[in-house]
Amino acid sequence: MVGSGFVFQTAATNVGGPEGVSYLGDGSFSTKVTHPPELGGSGEGLNPGNFLALGYSTSFNFTLARIMKAEEITGEPMTTTTVELQPDPSDNGFQLAVRLEVAIKGMEKEEVQELAERTHALCPYSKAMKNNINVTIAAVVYESLA
To answer: Structure pTM?
Structure first.
């Protein structure tokens, strides 16, 4: 239940709907929002899928880093989250699907996959998605952003 026994709390607001503005309650972030071009929007702002991808990749990687630290595993973790908006034939609306690609610098893919599966069981976003959104996890080769 929201509001009782929490460790951390944050709030966000959207004003104006799909051609409006979304911002964090503490004032640290504000952005224009739009529908993506695929849904007839200008694409000049962020959309809910962008926010989900950003939040999920960050939460997953925070959880993975926590496991690695506790187990004294070295390497730089990286998680890329792809969010798809798909047709939902059950109600002629939409549904989400997520793909997590996980890499750890200097680690073999088999080891990364095992850690990623354990991370998925502990990540708050993964827990929220469970039985609601199709989430696939794949270990990939680490590629630096530099």
So the answer is: 0.91
